[in-house]
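Students often ask why we bother encoding 3D structure as a string. The short answer is that it lets us treat folding as translation between two languages. Here is a chain of 296 residues written in the first language.
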Amino acid sequence: MAVVEHGSFRKAGVALGRSQSAVSRCIARLEDEIGASLFHRHTWGVSPTYAAQRFLKHARRVIRTVGEGAQEAASAGRSEEGSVRIGIYSSIASGFLAELLARYGRRHSGVRIEMVDGNPVEHVAAIRQLGLDVAFITGTRDWPDCESVLLWSERVFVVLPDDHTLANKEEVVWRDLADETFIVSETAPGQEIYDHLVRRLADLGRHPEIQVQYVSRDNLVPMVALGQGLTLVSEAMTVAQFPGVVYRPILGEILPFSAVWSASNDNPAFRRFLSLAKAMAIRPSTSEAGRSAVLS
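And here it is in the second language, the structure alphabet:
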């Protein structure tokens, strides 16, 4: 392309920062490879043959494609585009995770965020197979073949009908809930809430009545208003307002949340996401700093 543009091996070499002989050898090798003469040699320079004119349009297309590919790769390396697949367990209505997603979206608007609901075991299995980039999971358990870091904590709230006797209290204790009926969703995090209720109330010598409902978390809360039983939610969920229910914190009940990911994941968009999450955990927002027992 440079030789055609400048009409001379010497001038092309100057433009490319190479010697005239190096350019001449490159052209000779190319002619040998394709089996056609590409230039007419003259005393004043060179001119393209018919074969070179035909070849030139394809060469320009190749150079353009390679250049575009390099730009795309550079953009991906700077996390300007790409995608991050996130397994979620907590609500994204408010709190640390909601703020993290909002900040990352403002800084990397070209990156697509994909979120997947599920239980921790499913999320970790997907992470090991690189089907998910990261999952936010309750607790501080070590997962084999995975990396993890504790990021934030949330209080645990009981959801009550607004005419329930406990609705008049600012906060409740587990003994207040010992004789209550609870409902949990069949979908995540229903099983984890079920196990948590059994552990906490067993400490009081009670075996709780817990009914499993085959509805989503969003439909579970309205069932509380209908008198079907109480349920538990994390703090991030409490910004969601439903008629007929109130949220009351359970004294001393703090739920830690960790990020889990694969050390072999080299997705640059995810790496920027993880770096931002860690930075936010070190410097939590004012609202988080005031109530996070884990990060204080």
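Translate back mentally: Residues 285-296 have pLDDT under 50 and may be disordered. Keep this in mind for the problem set.
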